[in-house]
Amino acid sequence: MSAVTVDPWSDTEGSRRTRELFTRAFDQQPQGVWAAPGRVNVIGEHVDYNAGLCLPTALPHRTFAAVRPRTDGQVRLVSAHLPEEPWTGTVADLAPGRVEGWAAYSGGPAWVLADEGVEVGGFDAAIDSCVPFGAGLSSSAAIEGAVAVALAELAGLELDDALRARLARLCVRAENEVAHAPTGGLDQAASLRSRAGHGLLIDFVDEQVRHVPLDLPAHGLELLVIDTRAPHTLNDGQYAARRADCDRAAALLGVPTLREVDDLDGALAQLTDPVLVARVRHVVSEIERVRQVVALLAAGEVAAIGPVLDASHTSLRDDYEVTCPELDVTVEAARAAGALGARMTGGGFGGSAIALVPAEAVGTVTDAVRDAFDAHGWGAPAFLRAPAAAGAERVA
Ligand code: ADP
Ligand code: MG
Question: Domains of the chain, with CATH numbers?
Answer without folding.
Answer: 4-214 (3.30.230.10), 216-385 (3.30.70.890)
